[in-house]
Design a protein that fits this description.
The complex is a heterodimer of chains A (116) and B (108). Chain A has 116 residues and is mainly beta. Chain A has no helices and ten strands. Chain B has no helices and eleven strands. In chain B, strands 2, 4, 5, 9, 10 and 11 form a six-stranded mixed beta sheet that branches. In chain B, strands 1-3-8-7-6 form a five-stranded antiparallel beta sheet, with no helix packed on it. The chains are: A mainly beta (116), B mainly beta (108). Chains A and B meet through strand 4, strand 5, strand 8 and strand 9 of A and strand 4, strand 5, strand 9 and strand 10 of B.
Chain lengths: 116, 108
């Protein structure tokens, strides 16, 4: 079966532009996560969706970042007025079992965002 | 201080050597994960554990909850094991908190 997919794989944009990054989780997975990996930095949590519950947005670095998940499946991470420090690889992950805090997460290939 | 610390940051070894990567954490957790990130960037979950020890092929992961410490061992290491190994914890929530990673290079 298909794994987690993300698009685009690479995105180059100019400072100040808005970007949208897409994640298609594994079919049937109810939990979806966004993470960021900046150059030379470790991974950091951004946002988590679980079913119809309110998302955990505690990792979003500023109000320029937002995400939505439509129909409990596809998710879009939007960055408004991009800054150079937003350059990073944005990773999406999904997991199967709701309410199980230790379920294995399956990662997508990531979107490499470069802000010029 | 990071909530999750890994050591060493970089490790180079010869093929066949026994490898140990360590992870210490400072928060209460519901589970600890070991992840592998290959040079192409893809991340694969190797282990998820909340107690004891797990083994998969040449990989062994252990955790000591009282000491807040976990180790990842690789037996009979091979150049294809070269990757970044990342320790991550669930701090009582769904999200993961990550260590900085250990870059492992196995030379033939």
């Amino acid at each position: 079966g298909a794994g987690v997919s993300q698009s685009p794989s690479n995105k180059v944009t100019e400072k100040g532009k808005d970007v949208e990054l897409r994640c298609d989780p594994i079919s049937g997975h109810t939990a979806l996560y966004w993470y960021r990996q900046s150059l030379g930095q470790g991974l950091e949590f951004l946002i988590y969706f679980q079913g119809n519950s309110a998302p955990d947005k505690s990792g979003l670095p500023s109000d320029r970042f937002s995400a939505e998940r439509t129909g409990g499946s596809v998710s879009t991470l939007t960055i408004q007025r991009t800054q150079q420090e937003d350059s990073a690889v944005y990773l999406c992950a999904s997991s199967l079992v709701p309410g199980v805090p230790t379920d294995t997460q399956y990662f997508g290939p990531g979107t490499r965002l470069t802000v010029l | 201080k990071n909530e999750v610390e890994q050591s060493p940051q970089n490790l180079t070894a010869q093929e066949g050597e026994f490898i140990t990567i360590n992870c210490s954490y400072s928060v209460g957790i519901s589970a600890l994960h070991w992840l592998q990130q290959h040079p192409g960037g893809g991340i694969v979950s190797l282990f998820m554990l909340s107690s004891g020890k797990k083994k998969h092929g040449r990989l062994i992961a252990t955790i000591n909850i009282q000491e807040k410490h976990s180790s990842l061992h690789i037996t009979a290491s091979h150049p294809r094991d070269s990757a970044v190994y990342i320790c991550a914890v669930n701090p009582g929530a769904q999200k993961l908190v990550f260590g900085q990673g250990t870059r492992l290079t196995i030379n033939p």
